[in-house]
């Protein structure tokens, strides 16, 4: 395979571009490829896509179709079919680890970058969406009341807000993992799942997907399946919300608990469940010598908005934002 001669990261990007082109029913341009890559978890701008397309052209895997964009050649189709399935396995974990490493938020100063999920909504729905996001936080099903609003025409990395729309960035629970990592605590984000709520309290996971063995973001998978019942949990105290689990060493349990309490005082809340050493947390497996920490996902607010009929497109773990630029929902 010619792609294997390149670095693993470059190979993965090139294969993913081939997949985008292959999935299109017509020639596709750099802008559309960049948008699609963003949805798949790759932060690759239009200029970088154009550079990679030149490489694929030179390899004979793609060709220009006039001014319409690129299509796969027969050689490109064979290359894509031969691409190893495990090229994507572990990518989600790697991406999470990269975002955790880039998180710079300091609980002592309340300054730095945090990880955000992003949602695109119609401007006409904004007040309704903000009200739902606030209710989800009050109920404990998201981690923060802070949001960043992007207006139409604004762009942030590969995200561009269409006319008549707003972008809403909500804080992602993986930010907590980044805070723990920055304080020297080894963190393994192990599972995403659907957590049952009874009498407003978390009880058990009804479904789990391991991050390590998934070629897709498990949170996106659950969102796509529409298995959550966040609105039921908000309104009646009984429902299903999305959550994830991370593991930290038992030796770091006390330090981790202190950081969780400090973060909570700063407004990083939500229903947090800390398991016993080496024991499952609400049915989710935990490795020997570790403790499991379950946190409600930051996307539960947008998920609740969608359940209530709002047209919304949400991408989890999609960007880093400066915490000082966020505003507090009223």
Task: Explain how this protein is built.
With 330 residues, the chain is α+β, with helices and mostly antiparallel strands. The chain folds into two domains: 2-87, Winged helix-like DNA-binding domain superfamily/Winged helix DNA-binding domain (Arc Repressor Mutant, subunit A, Orthogonal Bundle); 97-328, Alpha-Beta Plaits (2-Layer Sandwich), CATH 3.30.70.1360. The protein is 36% helix and 26% strand. The chain contains eleven helices and 14 strands. It has a five-stranded antiparallel sheet. Strand 8 and strand 9 form a beta hairpin. Helix 1 (8-23) packs across helix 4 (74-82). The protein starts with 7 loop residues before the first helix and ends with a strand.
Q: What order do the helices and strands come in, and which of them pair?
A:
Elements: H1 8-23, H2 30-39, H3 46-59, E1 62-64, E2 70-72, H4 74-82, H5 91-102, E3 113-122, H6 126-138, E4 146-150, E5 155-156, E6 159-160, E7 165-171, H7 174-182, E8 188-198, E9 201-210, H8 218-225, H9 230-236, E10 239-249, H10 253-265, E11 272-274, E12 290-296, H11 300-307, E13 312-322, E14 327-328
Antiparallel strand pairs: 1-2, 3-7, 3-13, 4-7, 4-14, 5-6, 8-9, 8-10, 10-12, 11-12
Helix pairs in contact: 1-4, 2-3, 5-7, 6-11
């Amino acid at each position: 395979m010619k792609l294997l001669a390149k670095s693993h990261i470059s190979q993965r990007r090139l294969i993913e571009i081939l997949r985008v082109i292959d999935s299109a029913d017509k020639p596709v341009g750099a802008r559309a490829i960049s948008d699609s890559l963003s949805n798949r978890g790759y932060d690759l701008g239009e200029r970088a896509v154009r550079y990679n397309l030149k490489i694929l052209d030179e390899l004979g895997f793609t060709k220009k179709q006039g001014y319409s964009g690129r299509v796969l050649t027969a050689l490109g189709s064979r290359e894509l079919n031969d691409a190893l399935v495990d090229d994507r396995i572990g990518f989600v974990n790697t991406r999470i680890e990269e975002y955790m490493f880039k998180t710079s938020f300091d609980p002592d100063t309340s300054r730095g970058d945090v990880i955000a999920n992003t949602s695109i909504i119609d401007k006409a729905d904004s007040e309704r969406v903000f009200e739902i996001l606030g209710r989800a936080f009050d109920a404990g099903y998201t981690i923060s009341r802070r949001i960043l609003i992007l207006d139409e025409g604004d762009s942030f990395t590969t995200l561009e807000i269409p006319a008549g729309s707003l972008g809403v960035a909500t804080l992602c629970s993986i930010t907590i993992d980044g805070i723990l990592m920055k304080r020297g605590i080894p963190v393994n984000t192990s599972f995403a799942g659907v957590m049952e709520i009874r009498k407003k309290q978390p009880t058990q996971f009804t479904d789990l997907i391991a991050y390590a063995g998934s070629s897709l973001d498990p949170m996106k998978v659950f969102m796509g399946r529409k298995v959550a019942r966040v609105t039921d949990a908000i309104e009646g105290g009984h429902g299903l919300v999305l959550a994830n689990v991370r593991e930290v060493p038992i030796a770091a349990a006390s330090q981790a608990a202190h950081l969780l309490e400090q973060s909570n005082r700063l407004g990083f809340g939500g229903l947090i469940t800390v398991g016993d050493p080496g024991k499952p947390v609400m049915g989710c497996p935990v490795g020997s010598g570790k403790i499991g920490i379950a946190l409600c996902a930051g996307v539960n607010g947008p998920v609740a908005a969608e359940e209530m009929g709002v047209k919304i497109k949400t991408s989890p773990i999609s960007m880093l934002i400066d915490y000082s630029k966020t505003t507090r929902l009223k």
